[in-house]
Design a protein that fits this description.
Layout lengths: L2 H22 L5 H13 L21 E3 L8 E7 L5 E2 L12 E7 L2 E2 L14 E7 L17 E3 L6 E2 L13 E3 L4 E2 L16 E3 L6 E3 L11 E3 L4 E4 L13 E3 L4 E2 L14 E3 L20 E3 L6 E3 L19 E3 L8
Parallel strand pairs: 2-4, 3-5, 4-6, 6-7, 7-9, 8-10, 9-11, 11-13, 12-14, 13-15, 14-16, 15-17, 17-18, 19-20
Antiparallel strand pairs: 1-2
Bound molecules: 2-acetamido-2-deoxy-beta-D-glucopyranose (NAG) (5 copies).
Subcellular location: Cell envelope
Keywords: Leucine-rich repeat, Repeat, Signal
Protein name: Leucine-rich repeat-containing N-terminal plant-type domain-containing protein
Length: 333
Amino acid sequence: MDKTTTLLFTHLFFFTLLLTTSLSKDLCNKDDKITLLKIKKSLNNPYHLASWDPQTDCCSWYCLECGDATVNHHVTSLTIFSGQISGQIPTEVGDLAYLQTLIFRKLSNLTGQIPPTIAKLKNLRFLWLSWTNLTGPVPEFLSQLMELDYLNLSFNDLSGSIPNSLSLLPKLEYIDLSRNKLTGPIPESFGSFKGKVPDLFLSHNQLSGLIPKSLGNLDFNRLDFSRNKLNGDASLLFGANKTTFSIDLSRNMFQFDLTEVKIPKTLGNVDLNHNGITGNIPVQWTEVPLQGFNVSYNKLCGNIPNGGSLQKFDSYSYFHNKCLCGAPLDSCK
Ligand SMILES: *[C@@H]1O[C@H](CO)[C@@H](O)[C@H](O)[C@H]1NC(C)=O
Ligand SMILES: *[C@@H]1O[C@H](CO)[C@@H](O)[C@H](O)[C@H]1NC(C)=O
Ligand SMILES: *[C@@H]1O[C@H](CO)[C@@H](O)[C@H](O)[C@H]1NC(C)=O
Ligand SMILES: *[C@@H]1O[C@H](CO)[C@@H](O)[C@H](O)[C@H]1NC(C)=O
Ligand SMILES: *[C@@H]1O[C@H](CO)[C@@H](O)[C@H](O)[C@H]1NC(C)=O
C-alpha cells in the first residue's frame, strides 16, 4: 500500500470506531437504569412512562435528566407531573443517589407517606411533592438533606406537627407546607435557621398557639401564616429595620395593637383580615409601597390616614372593623 492508501485506511478505521462506539453508547448509568425500571414497575407501568423502554438509552427517556460526564451521566432530575399514576412514591427513588431534583406533582392518586429512602438523596436540592394525596407526617428525616434549597409539600394531606429540625438545613431558601392538615405550633427553632432566613408558607393548616418570640429577630422576605388557628401577638413579625416584602396573617386569632407597630419601608403586601387586631392605622402606613392591603374584619378604630397607597384600596380592604373611618370608608364624624 502506498502512503495515501494507508492514510485513508487509518482514517476509515478510526472513523468507524468512533461511529460504532457513539452509536452503541448507552450514556445512562446501568444501575440507574435498573432502578428506573423498578420505579416504573412499582407505579404499575403507567402510560406516562411509556418512553422508559429498556432497549434505549435511559438518558433519552421522558420525565428525567442525566448529568454530564463529571457525574458519569447519572440521573440528576426526576419529574412526574400530571399523569394517570396510582400508588405510592416508589421507595427505589432513594437509590438514584445523584438526584438533585425530585418532583411528584398533580397526581391525585398518589397516596401513602413520603418514603424514608428519600433521606439517602444527599445531593437533593429541590423537593416538590404537591397536589397529591400524600398522608403521614412532614418527615423528620428531611433534615438529613444538607443540600436542600427548596422544599414544597403543599396541597397534600400531611398531618402532625412541623419538625423542629428543618431549621438545621443550611441551604434552605423556601419552605412551603401550605394546604395540609398540620397541627401544633410553629417550631421555636424557626427563630434560628442555620442558613439564611427562608420564605415561609404555612397557610391553610390547623397550626395553633403563639408565634415564638424567636421569630421576631428574623428578617423574613415573604411569610404566609394565613388560615390557621394561631393567636396572640404577631406584631413581632414587623419591625422598622426589616426588609420584609409580604406578610399574610389573615384568618387567624391574632390580637395586638396596631398603633404601636413599626413597619418595614419595603412592605408590598399585607393581609391581616379576620383577626382581633385593635388600635388604629398609623400614618407610617402611607409611606410604604403597598400593592396589596387588607385589614378587614378586625377591631380597628380611628381615621384611615390619607395618602400613599392607602386610598388605592376599596372599602372591602377596611370594612367590618370597630370604628374605622375616612376614605375609602365613610368620613369620620
Ligand atoms: C384515580 O383513580 C380513580 C379510581 O381508580 C380513577 O377513576 C381515576 O381516573 C384516577 N385518576 C388519575 C388522575 O389517575
Ligand atoms: C384525594 O383523594 C380524594 C378522595 O380520596 C379526592 O376527593 C381528592 O380530590 C384527592 N386530592 C387531590 C389533591 O387530588
Ligand atoms: C408550591 O407549590 C404550589 C403548587 O404546586 C405552588 O402554587 C406554590 O407557589 C409553590 N411554592 C413555592 C414557594 O414555590
Ligand atoms: C434600627 O436601626 C437604627 C439605625 O441603624 C438603630 O439606631 C435602631 O436601634 C434599630 N432599631 C432596632 C429595633 O433594631
Ligand atoms: C379583604 O378581605 C375580605 C375578607 O376576606 C374580603 O371580603 C375582601 O374582598 C378582601 N379585599 C380585597 C381587596 O381583597
